[in-house]
Amino acid sequence: MTAKIQYNGMLLLASYVQRLFVAEQVKGRLEEESTQLATVKDYFDSINAIMPMFTQTKVLTVTQGEKLRAIVSGVKDMMQHYFESLNTSYEYKLRIVTSSLFAEKLMVSGILNLGKIFNEDVGTDMKKREQFYEERATMMNKLVAAHAAGNAPTEQVVAVINNWFEGIMKQQDHILKDMEKIAPMIGIAEKE
Question: Cα 58 from chain centroid?
Fold first, then answer.
């Protein structure tokens, strides 16, 4: 197991935690009180504490491995309820699109950081992707704020959200299956 693979596994886990964190925030602003926000925030804080230490040492401590194992387990459980097959509301679509874009933004930024940490070329395309996701995340923040303030979306906005949502839903199985890659990449065995 190389440190680079472990870092990639933690980065993938962090992107799922980001997805859940943003989804819970949007849910709390638009639909109903979030019951999982505190848990997801704890996961996010833990990963944000572990990853910088790992980038310096390139080694996970036993305690860090245990914490990551618990986070992987909790995130897998939460992801089973992330997609709601019968929900077609604009609020739900806004939640899924916003959280997906933020997860991708974190992943791209993390890949760029990986290049710096391991002194590797990650390609010029990543910088463009970073800007793309930064712009989309900013736009989604504005759309969520506008909707939370009671401003109805325009037909054009609804069409864009629907289009992006459909694209994400086509990737639903892939998104859920990617969760299975995390523990082996990090090098932690999941508890049964």
Answer: 23
pLDDT digits 0-9 by tens, 104-141: 999 999 988 888 888 887 777 888 888 999 999 999 99
Phi/psi at 56 (5° precision): -85, -40
Which is it for the CA torsion 86, 81, 7, 182, positive or negative? negative
The tokens of 152 are what?
């109805």
Global confidence as pTM: 0.92
Q: Which residue has the tokens 């997801």?
A: 40
Element housing 123 (H / E): none
Helix 3-30 vs helix 172-186: crossing angle, to nearest 10: 140
Residues in the chain: 192
Count Cα atoms within 13 angstroms, Cβ side, for 114.
21
**Do 162 and 41 contact (CB within 8 A), yes or no?**
no
The rounded distance, in Å, linking the Cα atoms of 34 and 178 is 25
Q: Which two tokens stand for residue 186?
A: 């990090």
